[in-house]
Amino acid sequence: MIDSGKAQAMNNPPMTEHEINEQIWKELSTLESYDGGKRHRFSLGLPIYYSDDDTPDGLTIREYPDGRRELVRRHSEGEEIVRVLSASLR
């Protein structure tokens, strides 16, 4: 019996060079707009929120313009700081 991962790989042909290049440009464009948004929010003195691959489920990283980062839980009552990840860089 073929497992579902192998079966799906057999059903999806390898990407062409053009498709790979298109995917790379799409990802770079996303990163560029993220970076522009980050700079804009920081210029206003506002934090940004994001998750990394190793961010625990239900938590988010809040990063301030001064470099301070906190692991937070967001809920209807507000935000709860779970842990300070790094102190201010300034």
Can I get a quick summary?
This protein is of the alpha+beta class and 90 residues long. Helices cover 39% and strands 26% of the residues. Strands 1-2-3-4 form a four-stranded antiparallel sheet.
Helix content: 25-40%
Q: What order do the strands of the largest sheet run in, or round the barrel if closed? A: 1-2-3-4
Largest sheet geometry: 4 strands, antiparallel
Structural class: alpha+beta
| Strand proportion | 25-35%
Total of DSSP H or I helical runs spanning 4+ residues? 2
Mean residue pLDDT: 77
Structural shape: elongated
* End-to-end Cα distance: 59 Å
Strand-and-helix sequence, N→C? Answer: HHEEEE
Radius of gyration: 19 Å
Give the beta-strand count. 4
Low-confidence stretches: none
Care to describe what's here?
The chain is of the alpha+beta class and 90 residues long. The protein contains two helices and four strands. A four-stranded antiparallel β-sheet has the order 1-2-3-4. Strand 3 and strand 4 (78-86) form a beta hairpin. The longest helix is centred in the middle third of the chain and has 27 residues, at 17-43. The chain starts with a helix and ends with a strand. The mean pLDDT is 77.
Which features would summarize this protein structure in a list?
single chain, about 90 residues, alpha+beta, 4-stranded antiparallel sheet, about 40% helix
What secondary-structure arrangement, pairings included, does this model have?
Layout: H1 4-11, H2 17-43, E1 48-50, E2 60-63, E3 69-75, E4 78-86
Antiparallel strand pairs: 1-2, 2-3, 3-4
